[in-house]
Amino acid sequence: MVYLTRKAEFAASHYYHNPEFTAEENRRVFGKCNNPNGHGHNYTLEVTVKGEVDPRSGFVVDLRQLKEVLNREVLDAMDHRFLNKEVPEFYTRIPTTENLAITIWQRLVSKLPKAKLHRVRVYETPDLFVDFYGEA
Amino acid sequence: MKAYLTRRYMFSASHRLHSGAMPDEENAVIYGKCNNPYGHGHNYAIEVTVSGPVDESTGMVCNLADLDGFVRHAVLDRFDRQNLNMLAEFAAMVPTTEALSAVIYDILQRGFSHAHLEKVRIEETMMNSFEYAGGAEMRR
Ligand SMILES: [Zn+2]
Are the Cβ atoms of B63 and A29 closer than 8 angstroms? Predict the structure, then answer.
């Protein structure tokens, strides 16, 4: 089994707000991230897939296809967007780094050519990242 | 759904690797430059990984303010700009980064209750790093 990791970057804005919380609770739980006008990050995404090496091509996965899926499912939808308002999953789900990793996993898991999705890692900043392995 | 959150912190400290259980010549051979009598320092980077179900009402494994607050109070305030050899934790232990990883893991394991502690990773320099997950296998 070989693991292959592809990196991508995207820039997006978001804010954290739960409509079921009071305004005061929202401020207490989410702090500065509750500012309704949003703020942004340069996100770094690392997608790791695993599989056996194809004896004919020597590849675990066709990188060009992987790149196409990443572009279509993630970057076209999220790069230079306001996540809360422009990405349907985040109309209801709070766009935390945790939920970004889960959402990206869900967007990719059935679309990958041949290889199996192993891990989605999302860096919100260089000193904060979340890993999701598809665990329930 | 279970996610793993990793947060990175920095602190600077000095140490000297020297074991009272060995003669000076042996210390010099085993620890090399790290045995120099007045010690030397590093910019340590620590990565703390916690895991747990993502809370549906907050979208979080744990509130970052809680993790940051705990690490600042229990780790950074105590270790930053210190000589590790002088701290109680290292009174009977050589302050290698292996030992430091376990010490910081234990502090978090005992005191941080907002999420499950998965592991602690420390970079002593850009060239070497150490990971400690208690007795558990590390998630890769
Ligand atoms: Zn943010």
Answer: yes
Q: To the nearest whole angstrom, how far is the Cα of A96 from the nearest Cα of chain B?
A: 6
> Is A14 noted as a catalytic residue in this protein?
no
Structural domain of residue A74, as residue ranges? 2-132
Domains and CATH numbers, chain B: 2-132 (3.30.479.10)
Q: Which residues of chain B register pLDDT less than 70? A: none
The number of helices, as runs of H, and strands, as runs of E, in chain A is 6, 5
CA–CA distance from B59 to each of A78, A122, B73 (Å)? Answer: 18, 14, 25
Told to judge if A39 belongs to the known catalytic residues of this protein, a careful annotator would answer no
Number of domains in chain A: 1
pLDDT band of A129, cuts 50, 70, 90: very high
For residue A71, pLDDT over 90 is answered with yes
In this model, does residue A8 exceed pLDDT 90?
yes
Of A94, A101, A131, which has the smallest distance from its Cβ to B58's Cβ?
A: A94
Taking a C-beta distance cutoff of 8 angstroms, is the pair A122, A96 a contact? no
**From CA B70, how far away is CA B54, in angstroms rounded?**
20
pLDDT surpasses 90 at A42: yes
| CATH number of the domain that residue A57 is part of | 3.30.479.10
| Selected residue of A98, A124, A127 to mutate for chain B interface (largest B Cβ count, 10 A) | A98
ipTM above 0.85, yes or no: yes
